[in-house]
Amino acid sequence: MTMGSMFRGEEVALVQLFLPTAAAYTCVSQLGELGLVEFRDLNASVSAFQRRFVVDVRRCEELEKTFTFLQEEVRRAGLVLPQPEGRLPAPPPRDLLHIQEETDRLAKELRDVRGNQQELRAQLHQLQLHEAVLGQSHGPPQAAAHIDGPSSERSPLLLSPAGPHQDLRVNFVAGAVEPHKAAALERLLWRACRGFLIASFQEMEQQLEDPMTGEPTRWMTFLISYWGEQIGQKIHKITACFHCHVFPYLEQEEARRGVLQQLQQQSQELQEVLGETERFLSQVLGRVQQLLPAGQVQIRKMKAVYLALNQCSVSSTHKCLIAEAWCAALDLPTVQQVLRDSSSEAGVSAVAHRIPCQDMPPTLIRTNRFTVSFQGIVDAYGVGRYQEVNPAPYTIITFPFLFAVMFGDVGHGLLMFLFALAMVLAENQPAMKAAQNEIWQTFFGGRYLLLLMGLFSVYTGFIYNECFSRATTIFPSGWSVATMANQSGWSDAYLAQHPLLTLDPNISGVFLGPYPFGIDPIWSLATNHLSFLNSFKMKMSVILGVTHMAFGVVLGIFNHVHFGQGHRLLLETLPELIFLLGLFGYLVFLVVYKWLCISAGGSALAPSILIHFINMFLFSRSPTNRLLYHGQEVVQYALVVLALAAVPVLLLGTPLYLLRQQRSHRLQRRPAGGQDKDKAKLIDITDASESGWGPDEEKAGCSGDKKEAELVPSEVFMHQAIHTIEFCLGCISNTASYLRLWALSLAHAQLSEVLWAMVMRMGLSAGLKLGVQAVMMVPVFAAFAVLTVAILLVMEGLSAFLHALRLHWVEFQNKFYSGTGYKLSPFTFAAEDE
């Protein structure tokens, strides 16, 4: 990765490729292995079904369907496909038929063996059910005593041999039904047959394997005794509706035993055949495991090559294919060398040369594992235009820092830093990359971002002097309570009457000097601690905000210089800087000047910066608010006048310059004689119809794109008016928006304080015995740790992250970054190799 590609997108060229027909497949395949070019579709008007290599694409798709079937069968068997070894090249076209034949043969074998296995399992399941039905002891039917009427529930189902039904023969229906259907089956049989039957249901002791799903299931066996042909027909219809398995049931005990022995023998033989079938199935699946990983990768690559070839046009002689592709200028020699090597066997060398372009090229910014997360933050706002200044290098510093300003705490930052450091140290482990959890993948992808966010939070935590909301005394305090007590003559009675004491910095020896680094820890004991931090963080937010916005305006200078638009330096950038720095930069100057020039002795008479800033716009003066320096009013009035004067320059400067430049170009192109009128008219038509990128965008095209589209005055003035209003009002609203740094920093500190006071302080101040106190502190610390991670690290961290994201997108990047481009998406096999 070059420095140019980091701070600005690389130069991208439009390349025309002449590929010999015999070597076109090999050339495109090698380009896919490199992943350096993005093909343009030269057949956009041709449907996908009319392209040259549509038959080959369909064959690859049919193979992919077969591979999907084989993959599902492997997963169904509980096997795991191994990862392909090494980088597999796209197979030559002549190998496609061999791969298809081998794959179809394996798929046919697998379907046959799987079908035989299903049939054998179904037969074995039927035999096992039949064995269970014959083996269950349902007992002989018993005739109940005839007590009530013939239609009573207690009337006998089988009458005496001397009754009117003595000529009827008792028949049996035996079978098995699913347990959840047994109760409904028994109830329906009783109602439909009016009780002229005896039904016995028993649950099987052993579970049988379901032939379809392979899961163990239980069955209920039943034995129904009845007489009468009509009753038997009803019973058979009902059992068929409930999908019962019905088996023949002989009346004689000996006959049933003989049938049971035959069933057991058949079941044993069937199990042996099924075992042989499953062993053969495992052999077929083993061959599938060897073929499938490499075959899937190769066919996906082959399909990708044919899809790329479908984007090429055919020469008039049909001897070569013509392709156009975007390619980084630095990679063009590599592409040319690869094409020569790939086409050497064809006898005619492939050619790649640069051609002029009129369209805006794609943006190429190379990243690594460290910069990819920061580039992702910028690209989420919008991909930069071609060779526009890339905000990502500056975001590497500014984003974690602004996050840390809102999240400043040594303890919380250290926890985040250690969590990110653990992911960074283990980033090469396969388990880290193979994790499928979406939340984990998000954290792991931004591990370096989290690392810097935690590190900067530790730094700002030392500035705020906060570690889990507690102040630490690293250096001696700059305030001396003993000196104040000695020189003020504080007596015991005075101390008893005044619970709050005031340290006066005007007394010699009370204030020894500023704290070496960060906030003095004595402020954590002061009652005006919050007021002091509010003033400090609010002014710090304004200073950081104005500096950040001014830096964004300065970065726009590099865009204007690079694209050769020097007029925008004077007509846009200079007025913007005058307006921003003349008003809000002056506010920063007042804050810093007051910090440096107002001592503790004069703090009581210190003027109000807010009143001075308001009077600056009103051109007025407050008698009670003294000046900070001599000549302050003149400077303020001059700055307001300059800022107001910069607005019409910003509004009208660029449109008037562009229209004047366009008029001068027309005068220069006007023909001298009548014989050149047709030629001049043709030039004007060409210039006016040339594909431009709009007057509001930078001309960042290729070397051949030097002409501008026709400018419409109303559109130019409208666009510039929108830009002027947005910038002037944005300077006010964006400066106020940076106060979120103060607000979220205050919220984070107060939440930390509340969590410490409500959990840890209550546990530490319980006043119990040492052993009991130690035991009680275990759940107290566990609750403190869980709440710290859940609320302060996760929720507060996410809130600070989103606010830092907004400050970069809205307040910083809109000063110089348009984000209206598109990425270079090279033709690559990287996804197939993974």
Task: Provide the residue-averaged pLDDT.
Answer: 85
Question: What low-confidence regions span 5 or more consecutive residues with pLDDT below 50?
Answer: 140-165, 672-701, 703-707
The count of β-strands is 11
- Multimeric state: single chain
Sheet/helix structural class: alpha+beta
What is the global morphology? Answer: flat
Output the number of helix runs.
25
Helix content: 55-70%
Report how far the terminal alpha carbons are from each other.
Answer: 23 Å
- Rg from Cα: 43 Å
GO cellular component, one term: vacuolar proton-transporting V-type ATPase, V0 domain
Organism: Heterocephalus glaber
Protein name: V-type proton ATPase subunit a
InterPro entries: V-ATPase_116kDa_su (IPR002490), V-type_ATPase_116kDa_su_euka (IPR026028)
List keywords for this structure.
834 residues; alpha+beta; 4-stranded antiparallel sheet; 25 helices; 7% strand
Protein model, in words:
This is V-type proton ATPase subunit a. It is a multi-pass membrane protein. One of its GO terms (cellular component) is plasma membrane. The chain has helices at residues 3-7, 24-34, 54-76, 95-135, 179-192, 229-241, 253-309, 332-342, 372-381, 392-407, 410-425, 430-434, 438-445, 447-464, 481-488, 492-497, 529-562, 567-597, 609-618, 632-669, 677-689, 713-737, 740-764, 770-812, 830-833; strands spanning 12-20, 37-40, 170-177, 197-203, 208-209, 216-217, 220-227, 245-247, 313-314, 320-328, 351-355. It is α+β, with helices and mostly antiparallel strands and 834 residues long. Strands 1, 2, 9, 10 and 11 form a five-stranded antiparallel β-sheet that branches. A four-stranded antiparallel β-sheet has the order 4-7-3-8, sandwiched between helices. A two-stranded antiparallel ribbon has the order 5-6. Strand 5 and strand 6 form a beta hairpin. Helix 5 runs antiparallel to helix 6 (229-241), helix 11 (410-425) packs antiparallel against helix 14 (447-464) and helix 23 (740-764) runs antiparallel to helix 24. It is flat, with a radius of gyration of 43 Å. Residues 140-165, 672-701 and 703-707 have low confidence and may be disordered.
